[in-house]
Design goal:
binds ascorbic acid, Four Helix Bundle (Hemerythrin (Met), subunit A), mainly alpha, globular
Length: about 150
């Protein structure tokens, strides 16, 4: 039984990592994919931002729903920064590939902070949400500063 569980876990982990390193037929497809992920993430992050900045009333349920979308989407773009995807319709800076460890660190920070944002959102506390939102937004900004052309 224990063995079977381990085998099943290994299989599902492999399935997840396969999804994460999604194969793209063409570099343009990868670029489109990652931009789409960032666009949808940005839309949901924007809804959180409106609440964090008092431009929309704080709604704990909406905060939790949007935070979950952000945290899930935050896992997706990175597999689409493969070789050959540095040119074309993209604002990606060459530093992404030249400083790949630093880029991965930035990507990991977004994922870590957005996971904390989900936890904070589930407390239902506005202050906790605002603090976690600010921390997450900081990871967006620093990555854009280093790795995204204006
Ligand atoms: C957003 C959005 C970003 C980040 C960034 C945070 O709402 O679309 O890219 O916040 O501006 O500084």
């Amino acid at each position: 039984m224990k063995k079977l569980t381990l085998v099943l876990l290994a299989v599902s982990a492999a399935a997840v990592s396969f999804t994460a390193s999604a194969q793209f037929a063409k570099p343009e497809d990868a670029i489109k994919y990652r931009k789409a992920a960032f666009t949808v993430m940005g839309a949901h992050f924007g809804r959180l931002g409106a609440m964090a900045q008092g431009k929309a009333p704080f709604d704990a349920k909406a905060v939790a729903d949007n935070a979950e979308v952000v945290a899930n989407l935050a896992k997706l773009p990175w597999a689409a920064f493969g070789e050959g995807t540095d040119s074309g319709e993209t604002k990606a800076k060459p530093e992404i590939w030249k400083q790949s460890a630093k880029f991965k660190e930035a990507a990991d920070k977004l994922q870590a902070e957005s996971a904390k944002l989900v936890t904070a959102a589930h407390t239902g506390k506005e202050d906790a949400f605002k603090a976690a939102f600010t921390a997450t937004a900081g990871t967006c900004k620093s990555c854009h500063d280093d790795f995204k052309a204006k």
